[in-house]
Each structure stands twice: as C-alpha cells, then as structure tokens.
Prior knowledge:
Elements: E1 10-13, H1 19-30, E2 34-37, H2 44-51, E3 57-59, H3 67-81, E4 86-89, H4 104-132, E5 135-140, H5 153-172, E6 178-185, H6 191-204, H7 208-219, H8 228-238, E7 250-253
Parallel strand pairs: 1-2, 1-4, 2-3, 4-5, 5-6, 6-7
Helix pairs in contact: 1-2, 1-8, 3-4, 4-5, 6-7
Amino acid sequence: MSARTLIGKTALVTGSTSGIGLGIAKALAQQGANIILNGFGNAQGPQAEVSALGVKVAYHGADMSKASDIEAMMKFAADTFGGVDILVNNAGIQHVASVEDFPTERWDAIIAINLSSAFHTTRLALPYMKKANWGRVINVASVHGLVGSAQKSAYVAAKHGIVGLTKVTALENATTGVTCNAICPGWVLTPLVQKQVDAKAAALGISNDEAIKLLLGEKEPSMQFTTPEELGELAVFFCSNAAQNVRGVAWNMDGGWAAQ
C-alpha cells in the first residue's frame, strides 16, 4: 500500500517483543498506527525498530496471565493514546505432553495467557471502539484452532477457544464498525521454532535444512514457513476498508495444513 492507511489509530499488540507479534506491530506501524508493545524481555530493541518507522511507540510489561496487570495495561493505553483502536491478541506460550502427564500448572498458565488474556483485553477495549464506531480485534489463533495435534492439549484447547471467542465477539458487534477476526498460522520461523529445528537436527544428527524438511513435511504441504511479515500484511488487510464486512473468520495461513 502506498498511502499510510492507519494514521491516527493506536494498536496494542500483546506478546510483541519478538516473533509474530513484532512482525504484526511493524506492519501496522508502516501504515501509520501508533503502537503499544507488550511482552517479556528487553523491549528497547523492538521499541527502536518500531519507532524507526515514524510512529509513536510505548511499552507495557503486563503479565498476560494476570487480569489486574491487563487492566493496568489498558488504562495505560487510554492515558497514553486515548484508547485502543486496533487490538491484536497474540501473547502465547506452549508446553508439550500427553494429557495424562500434562502438569496442571502448565495447563492453567496456557489457558490464562493464550485464551483468558484475550477475553480481558477485548472486554476492556470494546467500549472505546464502540463509542468511536470503529475498531479491529485481531486474535492470533493457530492452525491448532482448527485442527488438533497430539501432545498439545492445552494449546489446542486454548486456540479452539480463541476461534470461538472471535465468532462471538464478531456477532455481538455485527451491526457496528467494530470487527473481530482470527489469524491461524501454521509453522512460522520464529526464534522459538528455530530452537525446535536446531533440537531436531542435533537429536537426529542431520543438517538444519534436513530438519526443516522433516518438520514441515509432517504437517505443511507447501513445505515453506509462513513469515511474521506475511501475517502482518494480513492484519493490515483486516484493518482496511476492504475488510469492513469480514467478520468472525478464522483465516488460516498454513500452507495447506488444514486442507488435508
């Protein structure tokens, strides 16, 4: 897009100090949206990356497993920018184990961060959006919001829940200027996934390229990763006028994973 279509808007992207969240934040910033970043770790680098795109950037380190922290972050957004026009619920964690061996504390943490946090941010963002009669709620689900995989019970349950929350939020606001949609990526080459590739290569004594082929070959027919930049462009589309009647979709960008 040549024109910066989101000038004057504010986007809050949870889990945005790296990976998918940072990619989406940068794509929205390229369209002129001011950005509120959130996540663990050092935020100075990501802040500098987004600020270099010519927008205002703020950071809040809310622990997304705590409703009180989320409430404080949403108040910070209102105090800093007046409110949130674009909410991207991206924060997430993962743990892999069979159902009978799944640690209960890990289940609780995954449901809290991957699902309940999106409920809390959404309920707090909607009044401002509805008053303005314009808003975009974008939930980063996963292909695992559409299909299951063994050993990922909490993650799959949370992501299916996110898709359901997306549909209900969209329906409740269907006659307003507020839309809600979900993005469902397959494999995305983030630092976290690169660690999985490295571990597979080390365990099997194979090259990194061979490990990537094995990883993708298990699920993704395209045999290529989706990129954070591509997901960011989809988020920009959801914010565009062309998507004003796209409501309640779970849009998979998964290289054909869910088509099988």
